[in-house]
Design brief:
Elements lengths: L2 H14 L19 H14 L4 H13 L3 H22 L16 E2 L9 E3 L7 H5 L4 E9 L5 E8 L5 H8 L3 E2 L2 E3 L2 E3 L1 E9 L1
C-alpha cells in the first residue's frame, strides 16, 4: 500500500469515526470540539480582517456546503476566486502545472482580454466508495491547461480534499471547452476550476 493510499484510508477511518481497537496514548488534553457556528464566526472575522485570505474563504465555502447553504457557498467561492486572480496579478507569471507546455509555447492566464473558456463537455466526477463510506463531501480546486483544440492538456490539484482529489482530476481531464481566443486566434490557457462533490 502506498503512503498516499495509506493516508487516504487513515483519513477515511478517522472521518467515519471507526475505531480500530488500538488505544493511542495522549500526551496532552484534546482541544474542545469546535462547532461549525464558532468556526464560521472565526472565519468571518478572519476574512473581515484579511479579505484576500484564500484559505479562510475556501474553508468558509466548505462550511456552507456542508450546511447546504449553497448561495452563501457560491458567494464565498467567488470571493476566493477573485482573491486568487488578484494574487496571480500581484505575483506575476505562475508556471503551468507541468512540463506539458512545449518549449517556446506561450500559455496565457485567464484575465483581461482572455475570458475563461466555455465548457462544452462535462463529465460528472464519481465519488470514490471510501469517500462515500466516510461521508466526505467538499470541493477540489484544480488548475488546468486547455489547449487550442479545447481539450484539457494537463491539470493539477491546488486545493486538496484527499479522498476526492483523484476523482475530481479524472473528471476534469475529460472535460472539453471552446478554445480561448486572443485577437481572434485560439491560444492555450491556464485557469482554475472548482469541483464540488456532495
Amino acid at each position: 500500500m502506498t503512503l498516499m493510499r495509506a493516508s487516504q484510508v487513515l483519513s477515511a477511518i478517522v472521518l467515519a469515526g471507526v475505531t480500530t481497537g488500538t488505544v493511542l496514548a495522549q500526551t496532552q488534553a484534546p482541544a474542545p470540539p469546535q462547532t461549525p457556528a464558532s468556526r464560521e464566526a472565526q472565519l468571518l472575522q478572519r476574512t473581515a480582517q484579511f479579505p484576500d485570505d484564500i484559505v479562510a474563504l475556501l474553508d468558509l465555502t466548505r462550511i456552507y456546503v456542508d450546511q447546504r447553504r449553497f448561495d452563501d457557498a457560491s458567494k464565498a467561492l467567488q470571493r476566493a476566486q477573485a482573491a486568487i486572480q488578484r494574487e496571480s496579478l500581484v505575483t506575476g507569471f505562475m508556471p503551468p502545472p507541468s512540463s506539458q507546455v512545449r518549449a517556446g509555447e506561450a500559455v496565457y492566464r485567464v484575465s483581461g482580454q482572455i475570458r475563461e473558456p466555455r465548457r462544452t463537455k462535462f463529465v460528472e466526477p464519481i465519488k470514490p466508495q471510501i469517500a462515500q463510506v466516510a461521508q466526505v463531501s467538499g470541493y477540489v480546486i484544480i488548475e488546468a491547461i486547455v489547449g487550442v483544440d479545447g481539450r484539457i492538456r494537463d491539470a493539477k490539484v491546488i486545493k486538496s480534499q484527499p479522498l476526492l482529489d483523484q476523482a475530481a482530476l479524472d473528471a476534469v481531464l475529460q472535460w472539453e471547452y471552446e478554445p480561448a481566443l486572443l485577437n481572434g486566434v485560439a491560444v492555450p490557457v491556464i485557469f482554475s476550476v472548482t469541483v464540488i462533490m456532495k
